[in-house]
Design brief:
2 helices; elongated; 2 strands
C-alpha cells in the first residue's frame, strides 16, 4: 500500500474549518492533516479586484458615498487653475515664455 501524500495550502476559518486552495489528488478516505501557519509574506490568493470589492463593500456598510462627479470635476478645475497660476508666476519671474528662434516667428 502506497503512502503518498500531497501538500495543499488553504485557509483556517474562525470556526475551525479548513478551506483548501485546490482539490487534493487523493482517493477518498481518512487523511492526516498537519496545520502550519504560513509566513505573513505568503500570497493570500486575493487579487486587486477582490481587495477593491472588499473595500467598496466596507465603505457601503459604513454609509460612505464617495465624491460626486460634480465634486471631482470641481477639484480638477481647481487643480488646473492652480497649475496655470504657478506657470504664470514662473513666467513673470523668468521674463515670460521663451521667444521662438529667429526666422521662425
Amino acid at each position: 500500500m502506497s503512502r503518498t501524500g500531497t501538500v495543499i495550502a488553504g485557509t483556517l476559518k474562525p470556526d475551525g474549518t479548513l478551506e483548501l486552495d485546490e482539490k487534493p489528488n487523493l482517493a477518498p478516505g481518512r487523511v492526516q492533516v498537519i496545520v502550519q501557519p504560513l509566513s505573513p509574506s505568503a500570497p493570500t490568493g486575493r487579487g486587486l479586484v477582490e481587495v477593491m470589492d472588499e473595500i467598496r463593500a466596507n465603505q457601503r456598510a459604513r454609509g460612505y458615498q464617495g465624491r460626486s462627479l460634480a465634486e471631482m470635476q470641481a477639484e480638477e478645475t481647481a487643480r488646473q487653475e492652480e497649475d496655470a497660476e504657478y506657470e504664470r508666476r514662473w513666467d513673470a519671474l523668468w521674463g515670460g515664455p521663451p521667444s521662438p528662434p529667429a526666422g521662425q516667428e
